[in-house]
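Q: I have two molecules that I believe assemble together. Could you output structure tokens for the complex as a whole instead of separate predictions?
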Amino acid sequence: MLRRIEDKLAQGQSLAGEDALWLLQRADLLELGRLADAERLRRHPAGEVSFVVDRNVNYSNVCTCKCRFCAFYREEGAADAYLLDEATIFAKVQELVDHGGTQLLMQGGIHPTLRIDWFERLFRQLRQRFPTVQIHSLSPAEIVQIARLSQLSLEDCLRRLRAAGLQSIPGGGAEVLDDAVRQAISPNKISWKLWAEVMATAHRLGMQTTATLMFGSLETPHQLVQHLLRVREMQRQGGGFTAFISWSYQPNNTELGAELGAGGATGTDYLRVVALSRLVLDNIPNIQASWVTQGAKMAQIALRFGANDLGGTMLEENVVAATGVSFRMSQAELIELARDAGFIPVRRTTDYRVLERYPAPL
Amino acid sequence: MSTVIERVRAALAAGERISDADALALFESDDLLAIGALAAQVNRRKNGERVFFNVNRHINYTNICVNQCRFCAFAREAGDPTGYAYHLDQILRKAAEAQAAGATELHLVGGLHPELPFEFYLRMMATLKANFPQLSIKAFTAVEIDYFARLADLPVEQVIRELKRLGLDSTPGGGAEILGETVRRQICPEKISGERWLEVTEKLHQAGLKSNATMLFGHVEGYADRVDHLARLRALQDRTGGFQAFIPLAFQPDNTRIPEARGPGGIDCLKTLAISRIYLDNFDHIKAYWIMLGLKVAQVALAFGVNDLDGTVVEEKIGHDAGADSPQALSKDEIIRQIQAAGKIAVERDTHYQPLRVYPAPAENADAQTD
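A: Yes, here they are, computed for all two components at once.
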């Protein structure tokens, strides 16, 4: 089986579902890593590892979705529910600019009342005040909610958001692209097809997005592989995914965690998924390592298992932190991390253009 | 393919040990996965698919220490309000908890307390042994043994003999840090020399006590210092055969006085474990100490030549005072799950690596269909 897969990779053929399933479940971890590392090198021969200076701004934690794996959301009216006002958001983005940041990742809950005019007004002001910051914001589930509340088609909603300043869309909320899994872990969240439709619409309008996977909750290996195949197929249909990001479900403080107990994905589980995503997603250029959920040590190891990007510096992060997992990394630490692993660290834009290289000190 | 990988592969195939120069070249190589594959091969020959763990409890009986090692965030000077020293009855209570929780081993280490007399430690051994004859007592680094000898003005051999007579079963192997003197002068100037650590350890082995060996890495030392450290351990093991496991300890920088050191990266941790497995051909076991590596990295290390995931621990203070973000304790079920998730067979062991119970991997997930 390994030989067959190696032959396919050598001939530039895409892997089939059964190849992927075998790699995920049966392949020797180091063999899998070796294949993914070779594929990473083929796609990124300069040996560069990139990152973006960014921050999350979670404009609200009020969310109608109440996903069972989430520790961040609050119901409207809860004592610690919040909605940030514009002045607070501007102050946070100013702080990002002061740190040389170029990407704003604004996400909230699926808010029950915020319509498109709230976002348009906000984005217009952000573009005007902070022209060097790319607004990389609103996951598909939020866009669907805004369209519904504003009685707009998805396309019209996206057109208006883009006209106001939204430039690209993060791939969050994909969880596992399978409705049986979604029913079990996030029953109120949009279906996988609707997630895909938002992304396809954005891509058609020329907007780039990323795609994500949250694994290690209730999905089977088959469903995990199917997720990768669905993302690959969307990309084939003219998709504009710049990167794929997987992270493992973090059980603390969540409804699902209380039911399943602690635990969750192990280190080898994570590396297998990173490596597999590099090999299956042969039409997506960048694979991110998630230091936010896995810690700096595991993120560095992932760079030898197919990842070529460390995501963002994340001046602020709240959603993962709500599960009690709180890793912090400075830009200098990200640079050292990549360099110590034998790579050339580079700071990039949201669309993966290199802004600055940090070659090894002589 | 880099030449050092080829050379090491050939040496292993011929059943030869690898040279110091090749160990150094492995540390300097970026080929993490090839190094890991070689280490996995060495480990498979020695241990098959079995990975050991034990159910133990750490008791750090005092944090007051006359040494002020710069890498340590645990030690306090006498008189410090956060200093503590357990009374014997507190130690007994913790031992009773451990026994009730199914522990087979107590792991007792502490600071070099300026006032507690040698008799205190003798009484600790005798009382623990009398109350908990089933618990194996793994206690006192070579640094402490040497300190007791000076405290009591007795030869080291006699200190060892008395502790052993009263109940000491094995020793844990801490205090080795980096054995080379240049590094030692920088990070732990008051601590006994590397030569003395090896001497005391040799006497422990001669007295019939097994020990482990540690190496604190990722601070100010270079790769050559690590290789020198490994070389000294390998040479001593050739003479005594008294080491059970080698345990590389990833330096944790928080709250220590080596602010310039960041601690090793994940790749360095895996390489160090793997190279140890390849180089220390006369050690049966390489242990991933999850307290300081983090659980995820420790579990991944099982694919890089490691065959021991340490224990359930409970109430570890030394690594956590230095910022380790690992949990305080792992349940036995969680350790087993971690080992099985790496595709290995979990084996609960006693102090001397005798299997107590085997936990083979659960039946393969039936979900093997695909479209």
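A: One point stands out. Chain B has a mean pLDDT of 92.
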